[in-house]
């Protein structure tokens, strides 16, 4: 123990040391009172020096600690020993204002001449205490963040051992003790990723502080594959870490979802690009196997009526040679046995053998529409339980889309190749089968025959009983013909009232004719039509392919030619194509070919036949008649080429030329001062297959002809074919200012109601009735009735075919206003007609009595 002797020098030295101390210094006597303090103590506690000297030292201690402090102090005084700063218990100091603060104290005994003292050095540790607390809080916070992080954080030492793992890493990889062996982590990597993982670890070890982003596959603690990605940082030089820190996240579900989406897109692309159904369904199976390795996937389709077994289209997977196929088949059978297949959802089927199998019905737009079945068989039932149900939902949806698309394609193909009304093959399918039959007979030496069948007088049924009854009649006829055919034969509907039969593997023409006659007899059996039993008859044309080089189109043309002969001979019969018809058909083809070029080559011309007022004898109009002068053949009868033009559609361009040329000729006569109204015939095909109103308007505008000088003649039969459509066309024509005349009136089946509604100005009485005037009472009655009907409706009448004076007298007597025929003037070319007209009437030609109308456009 040091002893300090009293003296002024020593006292000054002691005081100087006390004041220069960095801590507060308090000298306490044996009695526990303060003997001396320095300035630092005044600053720490807020007391003046004089206020502390003589006070018990416990005045610097919080009240609650004073008793304990006094006892401790007494014990120290009795057993004095130096105590370094920070040793012993934590203490609090109390300032003059009552506030407390943490302090550290070092004690040392001090003996002087005045007695035994204790020297206490007091240090305020408030800032240090706060720093320590902040550090501890930071460490706790960091530990909580790391411990609760969703990302995996682990540290690998240079040997590849795990030295630290947070809970997220432990949950996936297991406890660090499980990965304590060198290279344990790398051994879990997928074989395809292991070499890359080793190479990256070596690169990281060569670059202290370096970072790299990586992705890899690794087995988890349960042996399942996980897709991981993360950041590896080399902190081997950091003593506090000493390894590579890996921050990783589990992206297994994201990768699966991406693969599922990619596979779904691939399936949709295959479906959209029209790949075969089996290819599309195989892509669906691959989609499942990508998510469920080791499974067996089967896809099968069923008939709409669920009849027959499942037709298996796809079988893929690792269990193909194990029990999988049998289990899948049993699962499919169970789905088929369900009355409501849509009620079987994604779940285990609970069959003893099927604990690892799921069968998913592929249901169409209605709950009863089972398209197919998707079955998935796995080695372990747990694989299905752990599989995201969305995978099979997507597979199910893709398979349904593929199957529905195929069904739609089949339906479209059915529609494209079959007649909508009867369900029979149409022309396209028939020609395909015919060509196949002709090819087969070249190998077998048998014959094939084509039978062109036409229902006689179907129009009468449609006009009298309605088209719905006519449609049912066609269906009944189709059924009767189909009943007679052998399994290898075909009956098709080409449209309208036309049926065509292909009879194959025949031995002779006689056998083919027997088939045709049997069809005629079968159809002739009374049918119930419109609630009544009616006899329906067929006309049949037959052509037999006897030569190996027979052509399908030629055979059809031959059968068609034979049909025309059957109809010409009275209908209700079968006719076979022979040499005579061959010659006629060849001539017909030659005529058609010549007709196609006749207009362009200037072979067509117009003739004009006058129509005369029966009272005054004045020419009021001229009918325009088409003539064809065929080189090397001379004049061709209109009865020969006009029907052919109608059938081939050539009547449309020819008819347009007639209208335009007639308007130009009429305009020429107008310019010469002698206007003459012209009547131009238009066919049903022109009215329904061309915009005739626009043609007429264009012809009038080009020629400058007034519409009052143009009259269009339409046959009664043509008008009755489709009154609704033609009525609209005739309305458009009359709004142009032209007039409409019904030609050959009395030969069709006009309805008085339709006649009243149609925009008609004139009726032309057919020559067949005019020829009998004066000799046939019935003809006289018919003509009288037509004239009276026309008067009642405000129409004019024209009697056609007047050839004798007696017929003209009767026409005048019966009240007909106008007549036309050889007696009054034959058809003449334009120049001859003009000369005849001038010779008959002189320079003044009577003006047409048709009131003037203005062209107001085509609506």
Structure description:
This protein is an alpha+beta fold. The chain has 30 helices and 32 strands. The protein has an 8-stranded mixed barrel, surrounded by 5 helices. Strands 1, 2, 3, 4, 5 and 6 form a 6-stranded mixed beta sheet that branches. Strands 8-7-11-10-9 form a 5-stranded antiparallel beta sheet, with helices on both faces. β21 (538-545), α18 (552-568) and β22 form a beta-alpha-beta unit. α9 (252-272) runs antiparallel to α10 (277-291) and α15 runs antiparallel to α16 (467-484). Residues 1-6, 339-354 and 845-859 have low confidence and may be disordered.
Rounded to an integer in angstroms, the radius of gyration calculated over CA atoms is: 57 Å
The major sheet is characterized as: 8 strands, mixed, barrel
What integer is the average pLDDT? 80
Strand content: 15-25%
Uncertain regions spanning at least 5 consecutive residues: 1-6, 339-354, 845-859
Q: Which percent range fits the helix content?
A: 40-55%
In whole angstroms, the N-to-C terminal distance is: 134 Å
Helices and strands in order:
Blueprint: E1 3-4, H1 8-20, E2 24-29, E3 34-37, H2 39-45, H3 49-52, H4 66-78, E4 91-94, E5 100-112, E6 115-124, H5 126-148, E7 152-156, E8 162-165, H6 167-173, H7 184-187, H8 191-206, E9 211-219, E10 225-235, E11 243-250, H9 252-272, H10 277-291, E12 296-301, E13 311-317, H11 324-337, E14 357-363, E15 370-377, H12 381-386, H13 389-417, H14 427-444, E16 447-455, H15 458-465, H16 467-484, E17 490-495, E18 498-506, H17 509-524, E19 527-529, E20 532-534, E21 538-545, H18 552-568, E22 574-576, H19 579-598, E23 604-613, E24 619-630, E25 634-636, H20 638-648, H21 651-671, E26 678-681, H22 684-689, H23 692-703, E27 710-715, H24 716-721, H25 723-736, E28 739-745, H26 752-757, E29 762-765, H27 767-770, H28 777-793, E30 796-799, H29 805-813, E31 818-819, E32 828-829, H30 830-841
């Amino acid at each position: 123990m040091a002893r300090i002797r009293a003296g002024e020098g020593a006292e000054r030295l002691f005081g100087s040391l006390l004041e220069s101390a960095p801590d507060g210094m308090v000298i306490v006597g044996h009695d526990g009172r303060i003997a001396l303090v320095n300035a630092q103590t005044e600053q720490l506690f807020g007391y003046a020096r004089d206020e502390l000297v003589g006070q018990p030292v416990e005045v610097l201690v919080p009240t609650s600690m004073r008793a304990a402090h006094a006892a401790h102090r007494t014990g120290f005084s009795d057993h004095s020993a130096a105590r370094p700063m920070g040793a012993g218990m934590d203490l609090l100091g109390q300032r003059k204002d009552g506030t407390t603060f943490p302090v550290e104290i070092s004690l040392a005994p001090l003996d002087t001449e005045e007695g035994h003292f204790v020297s206490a050095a007091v240090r305020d540790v408030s800032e240090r205490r706060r720093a320590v607390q902040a550090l501890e809080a930071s460490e706790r916070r960091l530990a909580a963040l790391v411990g609760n992080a969703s990302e995996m954080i682990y540290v690998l030492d240079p040997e590849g051992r795990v030295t630290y793992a947070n809970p997220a890493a432990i949950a996936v990889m297991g406890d660090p003790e499980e990965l304590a062996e060198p290279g344990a982590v790398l051994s879990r990597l997928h074989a395809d990723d292991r070499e890359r993982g080793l190479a990256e670890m070596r690169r990281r070890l060569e670059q202290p502080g370096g970072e790299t982003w990586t992705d890899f596959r690794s087995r988890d603690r349960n042996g399942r594959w996980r897709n991981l990605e993360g950041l590896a940082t080399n902190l081997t030089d950091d003593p506090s870490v000493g390894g590579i820190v890996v921050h990783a996240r589990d992206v297994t579900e994201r990768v699966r979802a991406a693969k599922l989406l990619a596979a779904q897109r691939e399936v949709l692309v295959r479906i959209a690009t029209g790949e075969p159904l089996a290819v599309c369904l195989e892509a669906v199976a691959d989609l499942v196997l990508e998510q469920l390795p080791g499974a067996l996937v089967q896809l099968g389709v069923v008939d709409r009526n669920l009849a027959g077994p499942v037709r298996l289209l796809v079988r893929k997977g690792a269990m193909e040679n194990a029990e999988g196929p049998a289990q899948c088949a049993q699962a499919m059978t169970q789905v088929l046995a369900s009355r409501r297949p849509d009620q079987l959802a994604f779940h285990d089927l609970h069959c003893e053998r099927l604990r690892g199998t799921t069968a998913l019905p592929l249901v169409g737009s209605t709950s009863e529409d089972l398209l197919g079945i998707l079955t998935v068989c796995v080695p372990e039932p747990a694989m299905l339980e752990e599989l995201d149900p969305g995978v099979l939902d997507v597979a199910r949806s893709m398979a349904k889309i593929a199957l529905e698309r195929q069904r739609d394609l089949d339906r479209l193909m059915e529609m494209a190749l079959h007649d909508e009304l009867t369900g029979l093959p149409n022309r396209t399918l028939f020609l395909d089968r015919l060509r196949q039959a002709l090819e087969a007979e070249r190998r077998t030496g048998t014959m094939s025959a084509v039978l062109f069948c036409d229902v006689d007088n179907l129009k009468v049924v449609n006009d009298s009983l309605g088209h719905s009854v006519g449609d049912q009649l066609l269906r009944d006829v189709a059924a009767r013909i189909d009943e007679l055919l052998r399994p290898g034969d075909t009956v098709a509907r080409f449209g309208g009232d036309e049926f065509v039969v292909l009879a194959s593997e025949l031995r002779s023409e006689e056998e083919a004719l027997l088939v045709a006659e049997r069809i005629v007899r079968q159809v002739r059996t009374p049918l119930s039509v419109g609630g009544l039993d009616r006899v329906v008859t067929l006309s049949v044309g037959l052509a037999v392919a006897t030569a190996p080089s027979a052509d399908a189109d030629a055979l059809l043309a031959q059968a068609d030619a034979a049909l025309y002969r059957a109809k010409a001979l009275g209908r209700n019969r079968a006719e076979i194509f022979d040499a005579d018809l061959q010659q006629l058909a060849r001539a017909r083809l030659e005529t058609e070919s010549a007709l196609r070029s006749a207009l362009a080559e200037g072979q067509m011309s117009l003739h004009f036949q006058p129509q005369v007022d029966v009272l005054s004898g004045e020419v009021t109009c001229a009918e325009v008649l088409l003539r064809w002068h065929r080189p090397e053949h001379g004049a061709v009868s209109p009865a020969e080429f006009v029907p052919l033009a109608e059938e081939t559609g050539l009547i449309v361009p020819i008819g347009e030329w007639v209208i335009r040329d007639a308007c130009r000729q009429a305009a020429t006569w107008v310019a010469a001062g002698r206007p003459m109204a012209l009547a131009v015939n238009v066919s049903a095909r022109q009215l329904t297959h061309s915009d005739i109103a626009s043609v007429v308007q264009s012809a009038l505008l080009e020629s400058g002809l007034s519409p009052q000088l143009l009259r269009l003649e339409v046959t009664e039969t043509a008008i009755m074919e489709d009154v609704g459509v033609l009525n609209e066309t005739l309305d458009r024509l009359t709004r142009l200012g032209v007039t409409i005349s019904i030609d050959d009136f009395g030969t069709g089946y006009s309805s008085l109601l339709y006649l009243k509604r149609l925009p008609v100005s004139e009726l032309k009485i057919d020559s067949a009735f005019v020829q009998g005037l004066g000799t046939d009472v019935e003809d006289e009655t018919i003509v009288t009735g037509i004239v009276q009907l026309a008067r009642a409706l405000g129409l004019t009448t024209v009697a056609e075919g007047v050839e004798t004076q007696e017929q003209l007298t009767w026409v005048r007597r019966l009240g007909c206003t106008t007549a036309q025929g050889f007696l009054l003037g034959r058809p003449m070319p334009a120049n001859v007609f003009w000369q005849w007209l001038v010779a008959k009437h002189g320079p003044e030609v009577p003006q047409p009595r048709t009131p003037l109308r203005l062209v107001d456009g085509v609506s």
